From TrEMBL:
This is TetR/AcrR family transcriptional regulator. InterPro entries: Homeodomain-like_sf, HTH_TetR, Tet_transcr_reg_TetR-rel_C_sf. The keyword Transcription regulation applies. Residues 9-69 form the HTH tetR-type domain. It comes from Mesorhizobium neociceri. Residues 32-51 bind DNA. One of its GO terms (molecular function) is DNA binding. The lineage of its organism: Bacteria, Pseudomonadati, Pseudomonadota, Alphaproteobacteria, Hyphomicrobiales.
Amino acid sequence: MRVSRIQAAENRETVINVASRLFRERGFDGIGLKDLMKGAGLTQGAFYKQFESKDDLAAQASRRAMESATHRWSAATAANPENPLDAVISFYLSMDHREEKMDGCPVVALGSDAARQGADVKASFEAGIKEYLEMLGRWVGEADGDEAGGKAMAILSTMVGAVLLSRVVNDLGLAQAFLDAATDQVREAVTA
């Protein structure tokens, strides 16, 4: 049965969205094409009509995951426009975000996997990370651009590291302590 161009485009978007979530949950190598396509409600044969390779899908799904994360940052800041950094800190360094393996930060979920991927996947992450840094740089707002950039990098590194460490421990008290310590450090860095 032939699929219309519109339906094919919708199917492609569905696969990218599903892959974005499943890769964050299981890693790039933690799910095969058959299960990925099944998650999208399609057959494995449909994959090759939509994508050049699994690497192609990984790059597109990574881009989508980073876009989704940036939208979440924007939504948090819209809810607290007077203090956008605090809004992001509150959601990002939370136990709720720690538990969001499929919808949480792709840098936390896939950072070490992405480091072993090809240039296209890395480019997707790099673009998203630069967007994070741009947002953070605006919020720390130092007159000296280098200082704001350095602070933004330190803040992002602290936040990503804290969520990652909170996810790899079983002890919920220790997980919360990582998030709390990072919250304190980030707030201190902004006022310094």
